[in-house]
Amino acid sequence: MTDYIIRDIELAQYGRKELDIAETEMPGLMALRAEYGAAKPLAGARIAGSLHMTVQTAVLIETLTALGAEVRWASCNIYSTQDHAAAAIAASGVPVFAIKGETLEEYWSYTDQIFQFADGDANMILDDGGDATLYILLGARVEAGETDLIATPISEEEEALFAQIRKRLAASPGWFTAQRDAIKGVSEETTTGVHRLYDLHRKGLLPFPAINVNDSVTKSKFDNKYGCKESLVDGIRRATDVMMAGKVAVVCGYGDVGKGSAASLRGAGARVKVTEVDPICALQAAMDGFEVVTLEDVADSADIFITTTGNKDVIRLEHMRAMKDMAIVGNIGHFDNEIQVAALKNHKWTNVKDQVDMIQMPSGNRIILLSQGRLLNLGNATGHPSFVMSASFTNQVLAQIELWTKGDEYQPGVYILPKALDEKVARLHLDKIGVRLTQLSREQADYIGVTPEGPFKSDHYRY
Ligand code: NAI
Question: How far apart are CA 259 and CA 338, in angstroms?
Fold first, then answer.
């Protein structure tokens, strides 16, 4: 029996060719294979992975297995799978459950599938956005009697999640609790998932240690920023083919993703405006040369609107109703609730093509909505390029090794990798792009209070 659910196994050869190319752009992951391939530090680890099933993720998966792990995988978004990458992974014998355009019901059943190892419970989670962690922890609480937690769903997502929890509870009483207790640790990829982990820990609801991969400098200051700088405009172009130069684009949020997104649009020739709630980020945006406005100021005049906040209800119905005819609206933050898509459900929708919809407002004006408000760089394009994902995923693998081999030394809580490892990740990416480092002399190192080998900065340095 095949232990995978994918679009088409015939796509495996194409996927494999793209994986081969990606490997040449992912020096960090390849270096970890060379360094740890023989020792197999992940032997015995059964990793339940929930992260966009792309070509780059396939290289991550094959690095984890090269280091000895058993892996089962699903995507963390219904639109982000690259079907040929999933096919290549399935063909290699790794169970994968991911189809671009899967339904929400399928999404949660695939999340359930990543925990169903034949030879025991999953003992590690590799998460992006926190859904795999949420599934297990919420299920275990319901199992412990907190049934009201899944009584009243407030969104389609929750409805599908709650239905899947009920299904598993009925099929395997006690499973969630046993599965939760088997987890040694979780490594979390993104800002939104990290927010969820800190929140769980504050409430005393995080039963195992977690490594916050996002806040490695070599993750958030690279993937979130330089990754979005390349993939945001890529997504808008593939979706719409619209002329970007000269258009007025609004970027909501000027954190790491916002900085990359604003730079992406500016690089394409758009005139970019920014909205922010944080005075520090607003000042940064202004001093980077962007006009800082409120959405109310520009809703009726801008051409392109992009949310990057990780917050909810940022672009609301009243904003969309004020927009010009054919304004483009999209989100690059983790969840779709940044845009009030649910409030558009009773409007007239015309599907243009996969992940592109035209929605008519009461005024007669239409908006173009990308990926139904889900992260458009992965829904409408192929996400970030391999090189920057190599830095992110090298942190992921180091986090998995740390938690698997030394998890017992950690109390439940949220940790970040030590700076020496962060610097190591960066170092592994220098040769590929011909970067030559200057060597500190002992005297110079003493003078600035570091060692010649690093770490070169204190923990509070902000880059
Ligand atoms: P961040 O915390 O650095 O930036 C978010 C910014 O939005 C903050 O500066 C905050 O002040 C601002 N903000 C919050 N509410 C706002 C509002 N109502 N109006 C305007 N600004 C507001 O977070 P980061 O790392 O930039 O991540 C943002 C989101 O993007 C998260 O959901 C994260 O998970 C996701 N992400 C997506 C990626 C992708 O490839 N699509 C890659 C990396 C992260």
Answer: 17
